[in-house]
Amino acid sequence: MRLWFGGAMIFCLSANVYCAGQAVHDGARVTVRYEDPVRNENYPELLYWFVTPETLVPAQYSEDVRHIAHDTYFDFPFLTARNGVNFFSTPATHDAVKAIVDEGHHQGLRVGATLQLMDINSMRTFPFNEEQTVVADGESTLDGAGHGVVESSIKLRSTAAQKTELLRVFVFRKTGPGEYDPSTLHDVTADVTSQTTEPGTMAVTVNLGPRYAGYTAFSMTTTWFRALDMFNDAYLRWVHEAIDQYSDVRFDGTALDEFGYVRVPIKPTTPYRGQFAGAAFSAQFERTKRMSLTKTLFETRYAPEGHPEVRIRAIDEYWDFQRTAPLRIEREFYNYSRQVFGDKNFAGIHDTFHNHLTNDEAWATGINWWTIPRQFGMSDEDLSLPLRMGLLVSHPGKIMYDQFYGFDIPRFAEKSLRDVRFDARLHYHGYNDTGRWGADLSKQPFLRSQNPVEEKIRLLNAFHPAAPRLPLLVVFGMPALLNWYPDEAARNEFDINGGLHIEEKVQSIWDAGYRCAVVPSDLIDTGAIRLDARNRPVLNGHTFQAVIYLYPQYAKPSTLRFLEQYTRHGGALMLEGTATRDFDGAPVADQLMKIASHVRAHEFSLDGIPALGVQKSALRDTGGELEDGSIILTDLASLQTKQPKEFSVDVNGHHFTGDYVGVFALKARPDGSIEKLACGGCSALQRDGSTVLTLRSGADIVLRSTGNAAYEAIVRGEKDSNVIDLRR
């Protein structure tokens, strides 16, 4: 059957969009729509837009809106305050933001905003008992007279210490690293003196007499910082207040950006050993865990001799609770934004902070990247693809966004075309950048380089791809990452386990050609990852062939039950690391032995992955496979040189050849007929040696089946500018 595209114009959608219908052959009806440029479909083209004092001038923001709408391929800017602007400071600022949103809508844009809670917090004062605190500790060995001085100090990066008070002083006889004789433990807080040289630093003087010679004196101090305790309900009220101040603005999206705790030093000169606390923090911890926070914090440092489970559980329970605070606020912000701005409100942006598992990220965001409420997985600063694929499959959308910036303009094109192979898009950062973070995306050097790339990515958006095919699920043990004990050598400068090298391992899997998604064990414990009727792991509708589990040490019982059930019924598992105890410190050797008896690979090895039944990607260096059997190819050189790239690829049992410029995507039926196609600079397509598609002149095209042998096509160009011959 031959379907001819072309013919008389039926209707016009806009000044630069032309639509045509075509004759019906053998009962088939084909519709063509000519567009120049091709309109964006399905997925927003996100842009970070800095609102500076200059931006607030009506003539400037009107020109900026016009420029974004007509000269770029961005259709969804997110406003963010910069250079002294505070969205909550004056009615004039509110009115200017509202005018920007209205002007954006008039120009066909959607507009969102990052409502930085710290900005509204900076305009408030609150009592010390509502502030975020940090508990620091120090120790010293008492001399023959039972005398000693214990010093402790704590500093944060983002805010200054306000005051410091003594919390507790214990003395005991140490029996080994991190252990003490419980019969010698005494609370001597009332018997010491303390002096604060400056907020954050304290010296405790101990004079207990010869009886305590050789004892260890251990002090705990509390330092208040000018930030609200995130477990204080006032924080939830601030979320509502921030949103309510803009309830009259028709935002299309709202965002918290890198939201989390006050920031610890990013490059500490001495290892960071503080622990977050606070009045509300402590009260909620004790209600939730039924444990004293002060006692728990002591037990994260020391355990009674012969009882390592005490310290194991204390560390695990503290992190398990501490990580919930940022997530609590994220969820409230998400839910209330939708209540105020409607259930279509776009949730942004990312909460990846410094984008690694073993730096200050745990103290900033709790590494909650996979569980914050978003339509799409989001990251920034070029987080590795296997980790980003984990974010993609953990959220409802079929794609994910990586917020990206830098001074190297060509790298934007390289990264964006590489990433779209795996349904990843860029959230561009930032329009009108003054050079602090990177290139100014409003200027011609960037637009000349990137606009042609975005033209081609729009074809893939219209193709509306399925999620990427990721046969391998890599799960890392979150408790093992956060609890180094008793391996002191693995204790890094942020008090977590720096010896696991999880990121390096998963990157080596990806680089070897095995497509994978990386997630934490949290998703097993919450029930997000489950086993289907065929014993296959399923996450958010995505099904995996095999699992690599990295580091089961201190796993929660729910994780161990999952692994036991999965392997007992034949699940393909590679297990790296051993486990002596679970999350509560209870021995698990027997349970782990049952799991290990069924695993297919007993240690991490790239050579062992084929035993899991997983194959390398056939498109390792050129593209990516999708869950529905379709494929995406990309090539930057063809776009830059305007010389088509030849391809030869198998799709659903049929061999397709041809050439393309920039991007090519294809989904074919079992009989080889096209279900949908996206192709830059398409001129011809062959299937099994026969030509099935030709264009009179090469052009960007999206072709989609509408059922009953009918098709619709989008062709870039003026009306009737091309003739297309499609053979089923």
Tell me the strand percentage band.
25-35%
Mean pLDDT: 93
Structural class: alpha/beta
Helix content bin: 25-40%
Distance between the termini: 6 Å
Just name the CATH architecture of the largest domain: Alpha-Beta Barrel
Q: Number of helical segments?
A: 18
Tally of domains: 4
What is the overall shape?
globular
CATH topology of the largest domain: TIM Barrel
What is Rg? 29 Å
Number of strands: 39
> Biggest sheet, open or closed, and with what strands and sense?
13 strands, mixed
Unreliable spans: 1-28
**CATH domain class of the largest domain:** Alpha Beta
Would you write up a description of this structure?
There is one protein chain. This protein is α/β, with parallel strands linked by helices and 728 residues long. The chain folds into four domains: 2-35 and 629-727, no CATH class; 46-121 and 324-463, TIM Barrel, CATH 3.20.20; 128-230 and 264-317, no CATH class; 472-612, 3-Layer(aba) Sandwich (Rossmann fold). Helix content is 26%, strand content 31%. Strands 1, 2, 3, 4, 31, 32, 33, 34, 35, 36, 37, 38 and 39 form a 13-stranded mixed β-sheet that branches. It has an eight-stranded parallel β-sheet with strand order 20-17-7-6-5-23-22-21. A five-stranded antiparallel β-sheet has the order 13-10-16-8-18. A hairpin with a 2-residue loop joins β14 (193-198) and β15 (201-207). α16 runs parallel beside α17 (589-596). The longest helix has 20 residues, at 444-463. Mean pLDDT is 93; it is low at 1-28.
